[in-house]
Amino acid sequence: MGFACLPLETSLTGVKQTRAMATNHLLEIKQYGQSIWMDNLSRDIIQSGELKDLVENQGICGITSNPAIFEKAIAGNVIYDADIEAGVRAGLPTYKIYESLAFADIRSACDILRPVYEASNGLDGYVSIEVPPTIAHDTQATINEARRYFQEVGRENLMIKIPGTEAGLPAVEQVIAEGMNVNITLLFSVDSYINTAWAYIRGLEKRVAEGKDISKIASVASFFLSRIDSNIDAKIDDKLKKGVDDIAQQAKLKAVKGKVAIANAKIAYQEYKKIIESQRWQALAEKGAKVQRLLWASTSTKDPNYNDVMYVDELIGPDTVNTLPPATIKACADHCDVANRLETAIEEAYTLLKNLKDPDINIDLGKVMDELLVEGIDKFVQPFQSLMNSLEEKIKVLSPV
């Protein structure tokens, strides 16, 4: 069986290859060294066969999940009721019932993606699950939950999502050292990405010092995009709304709108290249280490005036992953303009971010990134707590009188 997220020369041949690429631009992207993962998981798409089709025929090479995704999947969906009832009969607390539902879906998705994992030699085929967002600032609790999740799910192609907070990075280092795959999430600033990359490297070095194999460990650094533009665009709109007398200032402000996230990502990729050229990384590569790929996250365009696939088109390049929600997957398959643009307009990217300090623009990028990290954790905590509340209500309804 061929898999569409393998190189097309492996999975498709001749006329079939030409036809597939003509009808689905997702399949073209792999030729540039980028993998497409889906930012969505539910039991519906597992049981209907939709996920299997996406993996085998549509170019999807991995899955990411988070509390918001699980809330949408589980709340108000009768497909989970039988398992919730079983949890109630077993006397499980609400949180354990949630885990039983989520872990079952994660295992099923891992099994569907297992052939991709094997055929790509552990590069792709991963399913990500996040440790509880309520422990984002607790290093030891994060380590403990990562260990437990990895053991209880029991799949080699599981990736543990850990937020890139100050407390999260020591946890990343330890979990990598123990041989688990890690998806570091909620990265916004270039500095936070650099810190993440070195945490991965320190974890691998620790493992090497213990005489253990590092060739089967994978990691991605999830760098968020659209939330950056949404935040900065709102600040620009506010300045324009208050009134700008100078036409030149107005032009400067408008020139920044919708541009910062992509510029920021391109600069992060330049830092990635510096890191993999370092002696420390080269020493690990010689022992079989896999590069920690940059993963573009938060890729659905929030402003309807923007191209709906701009966070795909502008960031295609080698050793990267782009994780797309279902609507963006469909849009990209239909009309992505596929080309290697990740290393184009680099000087312009540096200039754009430098221009934010211009008194006529006056946006503190560091402050924006700090705001986004706090908001990002909150955006995971709120749906997690909402999901627990929804489950509590379901448990009351489904509990025997």
Structure commentary:
This protein has helices at residues 8-11, 14-23, 25-29, 43-47, 50-57, 67-74, 81-89, 94-119, 139-153, 168-177, 190-209, 226-242, 247-256, 260-276, 279-285, 310-313, 326-335, 346-355, 365-398; strands spanning 34-39, 60-64, 127-130, 158-163, 181-187, 219-224, 293-297, 320-324. By secondary structure, it is an alpha/beta fold. An eight-stranded parallel beta barrel has the order 1-2-3-4-5-6-7-8, surrounded by nine helices. α9 (139-153) links the parallel β3 and β4.
Name the shape in a single word: globular
Low-pLDDT segments = 7-21
Number of helices: 19
Portion of residues within helices: 55-70%
Arithmetic mean pLDDT = 92
> Could you state the CATH homologous superfamily?
Aldolase class I
Number of strands: 8
CATH level 1 name: Alpha Beta
The biggest sheet, with number of strands, parallel, antiparallel or mixed sense and barrel status, is:
8 strands, parallel, barrel
Strand content range: 5-15%
In total, how many domains does the architecture comprise? 1
Class by helix and strand content? alpha/beta
**Helices and strands, in N-to-C order?**
HHHEHHEHHHEHEHEHEHHHHEHEHHH
The rounded distance between the terminal residues' Cα atoms is 50 Å
- What is the CA-based Rg, rounded? 22 Å
CATH topology annotation: TIM Barrel
Strand order of the largest sheet: 1-2-3-4-5-6-7-8
Based on the coordinates given, report the CATH architecture. Answer: Alpha-Beta Barrel
